[in-house]
Each structure stands twice: as structure tokens, then as C-alpha cells.
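User: My collaborator sent over this chain with a note saying "see what the structure looks like." That's all I know about it. Can you take a look?
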Amino acid sequence: MTILLFVMLGLFVFMMFRRNKKTQQQQAEMQSKFAPGVEVMTSFGLFGRIVSIDDAENKVVLELSPGNVATVHRQAVTKVVDKPEEETPVVPDDASSLTVAEADAPAANETPEETIARLNKEDKKDN
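Assistant: Without extra context I'll predict from the sequence alone. Here is the result:
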């Protein structure tokens, strides 16, 4: 019974050290992405762009909005914000998608009287 207790305690300690090591690796990987111009979020919820990094004093200068800067500790920056990729609109090569369907489109050589008659017929259809 005591052997089982020691095995469980050893497993618990092993899992705890493993989790700490993973967290440290993730933190180091994230801090390697720090460079001027990168969008980040601090642990207290401020979003900004890195202006400069002082490795000697572990300080990061963030531009929160144009003209407003804040100096925070390097460890306060907890997340690199990735810009969502904007979908580029699909633009057709020709203007065929910009035209109205043939049934709805008026004739190109329509006289003003024919236009009035057609519009009156369409109004009667709606009622």
C-alpha cells in the first residue's frame, strides 16, 4: 500500500514539473516573437503595439493609440495578437456578374412609353 502511495506521489510531482516546463517553453516562444511593430495584449487587458524593448531593465514601451505610450514590465505582455486575415473579395474578370438578369432587365432600345407601360405592369403584379 505504501509503495502505491509513493508511486502516486512521484507521478504527481512528475506531472507538476512537466506542466511547468511546458509553460516556460510557451512563454519563451512568445517572448521570442517580441519586436517593434508587433501587436500585443498585456495581462491587465491593454492592447498596443511594441515601440521599443529594453532587455537590460525588462521594460517594453507600448503605443496604445497614436501619441499615447505606456511602459510596462516585459512579463506583463502576455499575448501576441495576430491580425485576422481579411478575405479578399472575389472580383470577376468580366462584368457579367454586375448585370441584372435578362428577364428583369429592360430592353436597351426601349422608348419612354414602353418603359412606362412595363413599369405599370410590374406594379400590377406586386398587388
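A starting point for your reply to your collaborator: The helical segments are 2-32, 112-126.
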